[in-house]
Amino acid sequence: MNESYKIISSSILYWFSQKKWFVYSILIALFLLSLSTPVGLTLPAYHSLIILVLVFILVTFEPIPFPAIALLTLVLQVVLGVAPPNEVASSFMNDAVLFVMGSLMFAIAIVHQGLDIRLARMIIYFFGKSKRLFLMGLMTISAILSSFLGEHTVIAIMLPIGLSVIKNIDTQKTDGKNAVLLTLFSVAYGTIIGSIGTPSGGARNVIMINYLQEFSNVNIDYWKWMKHAYPILIIQLLVAYFVLQFTFPSSLKNIQIKGFKKKVQASDTKKNINHLFSCLIIVFIIFSWFTFNDKYGLGIIALAGALSFMIFGMISWEEINKNTNWGVILLFAATISLGFQINETGASSWLVLKFNDLLEALPSNSFNISWSIMAIISGLTANFFTSSATVSLIGPMAIELQPTDITFALSSAIASGFSFLTVISSPTAMILYSTGLVSTKLFFRVGILMFSISIIILYLMSQFYWINI
Amino acid sequence: MKILIAIGGKEFSKPTLDLGMKISNSFQASTTIAYVGKKISQFSEKDVSVVHQNLDDRELYRPGIRTLEWAYDFLVSKKYIEKDNNNNFDDYLLVDEENSRMKVLLKGKNSDKIDLIMRTGEIIEQLKSEVDRNKQEITIIGGGGNKGIHSKLIQFIDSSIFVVKNYSVNKKYKILLPVNDSQGSNMALETAINFAKAYKLEVEIVSVYEGKKSIKGIDRFVEKSINKLNKNSIKNNAKVLEGTPVNSIVEHAKDDSIIILGVSPKNPFLKYFFGSKPISIAEKCNCPVLIAK
Questions:
Q1: Could you say which of A99, B129, B135, B250 would form a disulfide bridge with A299 (CB–CB 3.0 to 4.6 Å)?
Q2: What pLDDT digit, counting tens, does each position of B125-160 carry?
Q3: Does B273 touch chain A if contact means CB atoms closer than 8 Å?
């Protein structure tokens, strides 16, 4: 056989083996395009749903880079006649996208300051009396910080603290292995649970607030979100503490809080000043989210945080540029734009109509059933598709189910934050997995219990607590 | 000669590293020992990178370093690396060489023929990229893991592939050389001669008659192989098997066999969708298999 033929065909096959899901997604999209438009759906609405299917496949299997998926989404919206170019461009940038951008940059600036050393000292001061109390402190502080600063910031700060106290543990013995897992899961679950607490806890929260404002003219401010979500966070934290203690029973005798304590105390004056400034900026930004949220928007305030760090010379642009995931920002912008078009074209109303038709076929059609299906679908999709992308695409449908009642929209956003099942669901889960100490199976085994309990907590709170506030 | 040894977890990689280093040592090859870390979702890759930088700053081992430290200790214990007081693994320096590839630089005097590297991502992509970059002639990998990995490695990586399955240091191995009249058998014969000479191993040539009693081309090749092995003073014998090639060879191979096969001359498209005999043998046999390219 001709050598050059072999080389070319091998290259084509290698490309196909790496990009097969891209080929499949295009074939599926072409097949759907060849079908006639479903009854009750306009052509642009049908095309927007085809792009939605395409994006779901591409984001789940990642055969091409995220920026490429983002650009493809924008190009297809115009080429398939979903919306004119100017409309697509204007829906591409809004406060939610600015928030994703600002919070990622703000996170890098905070992590760069090395605040974990000071934070560890604080946790040891307040919770260092016993090892179990220390782990509880680690979890609680992770949750509180994550609720304001977002998962990606907090896991980057807290994981080194967790790994420091377990670094000399022999994982060959069950007691040691359980101590390691208990520590890592305490940090991870604290961080994941915390992210539902306030709008700035996760981009998905801001995206939902934005959708509610645009589609239903309902305004949810920082306080209102907290009043709804923080009690759920507290109950979840308590449940998670006991679930982890039960799943990973350990004497914790090899955890070394004291060894870490000595290391923490070595810090210099310049660092102290930097830390003080960092804390002032963080407090000021959180205060602004509370008070100026309506006027300036969460995104602009997050950007101001990153800006402050740069202006005071506490981080260079090169550092921020190197560590910011621009691909994710582009992707969120594109999916939010698609979410807007799904709503504008009437595709979300059509899907909700079909959903309600399906429910009517059930023996007892009620608010509870549609709520449960919506919350479980949001939670499950987020676990396989990541939370923010889920909310940006499913959000319009959740709002359409009950346009005047925020229960559905809030539940969908909060359930999307239950990233307990898969390691791809959130940065926290992926970082935990990347340590090599937690397998996908173990993460799922522990997470399935937390996920189920969290859905029940959310249901009970939405039924009995939210109606009273 | 250049050799790439891919290692995973400490528990499973010892036989791979052991055999890989023996081969490398006997061929005086420069060796790259690569740990390929878990693939990170694009959503989290920057976050993971920031956390890993943070762990480096706190002098905490980032994932994968522990495995490379274990590999380093193994090399020291087997005297592949001369250790003095100045070159502890604790003094390692990670050098970010290019996207997804990091080299571990050890201070002090170490063998300049051994590199420890860490890569992150999908294993086929990373090993292919390493071989494309450094042009290794043999890639040595353990027999565990995902079943499809070995067939993809054989198909896409531009080097011979040695799958180390069920290898034991204490066993006395002999080479099993299945041949037919294809071009690949020539390469397999050359590789078998090199291995047999380096380790003083016996070679058993096997040919399979599928239905027909004899195939002239195969008989001629067996004769040529025997002559070549005799010329190199390698103890050998030849055997004819009957039945389908894959099943006959798999049944004939013992735990103490090292199978050396040539790559299939089949059309790459047919190989991708329907497999090939060497790929099937490598998947089904419970002993080390080398596919020569």
A1: A99
A2: 999 999 999 999 999 998 876 667 888 888 899 999
A3: no
